[in-house]
Write a structure and sequence with these properties.
The structure holds two protein chains of two kinds. Chain A is an alpha+beta fold. Chain A has five helices and five strands. In chain A, strand 1 and strand 2 form a beta hairpin. Chain A starts with a strand and ends with a helix. Chain B has 18 helices and 28 strands. Chain B folds into three domains: about 190 residues, Aldehyde oxidase/xanthine dehydrogenase, molybdopterin binding domain (Aldehyde Oxidoreductase, domain 4), CATH 3.30.365; about 140 residues, Aldehyde oxidase/xanthine dehydrogenase, molybdopterin binding domain (Aldehyde Oxidoreductase, domain 4, 2-Layer Sandwich); about 325 residues, Aldehyde Oxidoreductase, domain 4. Chain B is α+β, with helices and mostly antiparallel strands. Classes of the chains: A alpha+beta, B alpha+beta. Chains A and B meet through helix 1, helix 2, helix 3, helix 4 and helix 5 of A and helix 6 and helix 17 of B.
């Protein structure tokens, strides 16, 4: 089927099997490989993107449901929250293997857009859907907090 | 695994002129390997993929360090580059890291005699080697500058990547890269004394891979796309040891995008133009399995075999004094059994590989290759080409925890078989799903430990009897020759055959109880269970003898474990051991030496809804010279989280037919951020040779938590994971 949507600010007209999860359209068709496959059942958050500004699991989102949607991936993520998150990620050298980090950053940026100065509890609640098997959680917590403070200043 | 061996004197050689289109200095340092595991590997295994070197200095003033170990989070990219930058006096901003290609002769690990990443050995085996390589590059650059300027070489100084002379002349590494390549490398380059280190031990040195891992730019194997590439998923057997009897692919072939269906030794592969079509096609596949050689029992029966075997003494690995007499004369005798389940590694990136035909008739592969030499051999063998015709690109990998180091190279084999079955000309990407990963075996082996301890009238431990029984993943693989001795796999016993404690009457023995379930090393290997059993039972005995868990351990630690004692004292001090705790909270402690690093942890625990909740962990580590302190801290934090996930939640179980019951993260729970304790890490200052940190943070966590739970509930944890119990504080 034909689907038209905006990806990272660019209009895209796609001819795909409408059942195809957004994840595989991003990766296989558009080669936006920063969005990762981790579980395929919305359990790990490695595939987190923003759809109309909200974090969404691309692995369980059929592309047919996205007609006219505005999709943002890690490659297109920008703005003050994104800058603050990436700067804090660098400050704490947060990633280890790095595979889940696109999803962590997408979720963290969405949290800061909603809640610019999150508490530890806010951070834990917002990011509890993003698994990191390296358990970089201590640094993610510190980095998101620091990003919030950076945004304020 | 293998102990730290001080690298032998390195031989130096420069390689010139093979770096097409990029003139400059290339430094190769060949390290003689000990050849402990040369199962037909190194002789024929020349790799023959250039450029082969450790350091490349190019005229654009970039210093690229080729990393002989795979980067999947433990930090070898930054760590090995730190060693080079230190001795070169480079500017950190000009340093880059990339994976070395497969070449066992050049990049072989001296412990294994092949190119591999494991045993937390990347820094330990590189400390002298990479520093010598850096010092060699520095000397050759200085020599080239001295000649160009017509001044004595000993008047050249180097700072932050700038060569200078008192006359006011300065130059960059890049400017002298080509001239330096013509210099003769020094026989014995001078290494810095530690008091002059600026990068080693630097708290503020940023990691080299953080930026790309924050923008989506870092490429993993799954991110490799080749022209005309097909994506393959494989229907694997539901039971271990089962084989394909027959299959019906008519519905699969009707799925748009599916190109081919091929049987390979691992199962039935569906090849498609895109990932979704491959997954859909696999779902439509009907496979009949032959279970005649399969393991069809419930995991309780498998564990029961281990429990039964552990009741009788096994092959003795350690014996001291007279245990039977000591037990007979003991005032108190305690007995305990500890049971450890199968564990999946569940790295974030499921297994994957890409392989294609090269223009010269060989093959090129992209793989998160941890057992690099073995992967290389197997790809060459399956594709029917020489190793020299295989270009194996080692890719960043989304975690491993041991999963990617396969003595059988089963992943490389599966990918290569599919590639060949599909004709051998079309590029193929093999992708495992999470279900393939959780159900695909290569688990941490099940193990049962049976312990008896005797106390005298003073409460001192006078007898120690430990028998363990479990699977060995080395049996039947190329690693059997050096891992299994006298019928016992040394990795089953590490941490038990030798403990930190003075136990005058002791016997430790083991049984190998094998079955068709595939098993593998899992972050910290034998210490995952030996550390747990020893540290829990010691704690129980100390408590029964009326001793404090910290003071009691310290009193028993032998002189050889003075460094472990120092970490215990530090962790206890940080945690405020002995302080009054809030109601419903308790502290537990454990100390484990693994991979020649010493780690003690104290955990503060409560019970929340029947499950232990860990609030904070204080961790002290002695890993010799702390090359990258922040990476060491991060590895301790990560080790705590990885271990906590396993001891709280994780087990792989089989139903009554032998089929794996778990399939994905909903029923194989991973620790989430909301369950992650705060972690405070202290690094003991040391001038000893550096040792590993990837694994040693794992072993003490489980027993520290279990010991706290016992104090809270009065009930010892005997079987993992802890969610099996409904704890009441």
């Amino acid at each position: 089927m034909a689907v038209s949507l905006k990806i990272n600010g660019e209009n895209r007209a796609l001819e795909v099997d409408g059942e195809t999860p957004l994840l595989w359209v991003l990766r296989d068709d558009l080669r936006l490989t920063g969005t990762k496959f981790g579980c395929g059942i919305a359990q790990c958050g490695a595939c987190t993107v923003h759809v109309n500004g909200q974090p969404r699991r691309a692995c369980v989102t059929p592309v047919s449901t996205l007609e006219g949607a505005d999709v943002m991936t890690i490659e297109g993520l920008e703005g003050p929250e994104a800058d603050a998150v990436r700067a804090a990620w660098a400050e704490y050298d947060t990633p280890q293997c790095g595979y889940c980090q696109s999803g962590q950053i997408m979720t963290a940026a969405a949290l800061l857009q909603r809640t610019p100065k999150p508490t530890d509890e806010d951070i834990d609640n917002a990011l509890a859907g993003n698994i990191c098997r390296c358990a970089t959680y201590v640094r993610i917590r510190k980095a998101v907090k620091a990003a919030g403070e950076r945004l304020e200043g | 695994m293998a102990p730290y061996d001080k690298p032998e004197k390195a031989t130096l050689a420069t390689r010139r002129g093979f770096l097409a289109g990029a003139g400059g200095l290339v430094i190769a340092v060949a390290l003689p390997t000990k050849g402990r595991a040369q199962t037909g590997t190194t002789g024929a295994a020349t790799g023959a993929v250039s450029p082969n070197a450790f350091i490349r200095v190019t005229p654009d003033n970039i210093v690229t360090v080729l990393i002989k170990h795979i980067e999947f989070g433990q930090g070898p990219w930054t760590g090995l580059a730190t060693l080079v930058a230190e001795e070169m006096d480079a500017d950190w901003a000009q340093i880059r890291a990339e994976h070395a290609p497969s070449n066992p002769a050049l990049y072989g690990d001296p412990n294994f005699g092949m190119q591999i990443t494991g045993g937390s050995a990347s820094i330990a085996t590189s400390y002298d080697l990479m520093r010598k390589a850096g010092a060699t590059a520095r000397a050759m650059l200085a020599s080239a500058a001295a000649k160009a300027w017509g001044v004595p070489v000993d008047e050249i100084t180097v700072e932050k990547g700038v060569l200078s002379h008192g006359s006011g002349r300065t130059g960059s590494f890049g400017e002298f890269a080509e001239a330096a390549a013509a210099e003769t490398p020094p026989d014995a380059p001078t290494l810095k004394s530690p008091d002059r280190f600026i990068y080693i031990g630097n708290e503020d040195l940023p990691k080299l891979d953080t930026a790309d891992k924050s923008t989506g730019a870092a490429d993993f194997t799954l991110d490799v796309y080749r022209d005309g590439m097909l994506t393959a998923v494989v229907e694997h057997p539901k039971k271990f040891g089962a084989a394909v009897a027959s299959f019906d692919d008519s519905a699969t072939r009707a799925v748009p995008g599916v190109v081919d269906v091929k049987q390979v030794s691992a199962g039935v592969a569906v090849l498609a133009e895109n990932t979704y079509a491959a997954l859909k096609g696999r779902k439509a596949l009907k496979v009949e399995w032959d279970d005649s050689a399969a393991e069809t029992r419930h995991t309780d029966a498998i564990l029961g075999d281990c429990e039964e075997a552990a009741k009788a003494q096994g092959v003795v690995a350690h014996e001291a004094g007279a245990v039977a007499d000591a037990l007979a004369g003991a005032e108190t005798v305690l007995e305990a059994e500890y049971l450890f389940p199968y564990l999946a590694h569940a790295p974030m990136e499921p297994l994957d590989a890409v392989i294609e035909r090269s223009a010269d008739g060989g093959v090129e592969a992209w793989l998160g290759s941890q057992g690099t030499t073995i992967d290389h051999q197997v790809i060459a063998g399956v594709c029917g080409v020489d190793m020299a015709q295989v270009k194996l690109n080692v890719m960043l990998a989304g975690g491993s925890f041991g999963r990617r180091a396969q003595p059988t190279a089963h992943l490389a084999q599966e990918a290569a078989e599919i590639f060949m079955a599909a004709g051998g000309d079309t590029p193929v990407k093999l992708m495992w799903t999470r279900e393939d990963d959780i159900r695909g075996g290569y688990y941490r082996p099940v193990t049962a430990h049976r312990l008896r301890g005797g106390l005298d009238a003073n409460g001192d431990i006078i007898a120690w009897e430990q028998t363990l029984a479990g699977q060995s993943f080395a049996v039947g693989t190329p690693f059997e020759a050096f891992m299994v001795r006298n019928g016992v796999d040394a990795t089953m016993l590490e941490g038990a055959s030798e403990t930190p404690y003075a136990l005058p009457n002791a016997v430790v023995s083991a049984h190998i109880v094998n079955n068709p379930v595939s098993t593998l090393w899992w972050r910290s290997v034998g210490h995952t269970h030996t550390g747990h059993a020893v540290e829990c039972f010691i704690d129980e005995l100390l408590e029964a003898g009326g001793k404090d868990a910290v003071a009691g351990r310290l009193a028993m630690m032998t002189d050889n474990y003075a460094r472990l004692a120092a970490t215990l004292e530090k962790a206890a001090e940080m945690a405020g051991w002995g302080r009054e705790l809030p109601d419903g909270r308790a502290l537990g402690v454990a100390s484990v030496k693994s991979f020649n690093s010493y780690v003690s942890q104290v955990a503060e625990v409560s019970i929340d809804g029947g499950v232990p909740r860990v609030h904070k962990v204080w961790c002290a580590v002695d890993c010799g010279v702390a090359v990258n302190p922040e990476i060491i801290r991060a590895q301790m934090e990560g080790g705590v989280g990885y271990a906590l996930s396993a001891v709280l939640f994780n087990e792989i179980t089989f139903d009554e037919t032998g089929a794996v019951e778990q399939s994905n993260f909903h029923d194989y729970r991973s620790l989430r951020i909301s369950e992650m304790p705060d972690v405070e890490v202290a690094i003991i200052k040391s001038g000893e040779a550096p040792t590993g940190v990837g694994e040693p943070g794992v072993p003490p966590l489980g027993p520290a938590v279990a010991n706290a739970v016992r104090r809270l509930t009065g009930k010892a944890v005997r079987r993992l994971p802890m969610v099996r119990d409904d704890f009441q504080a």
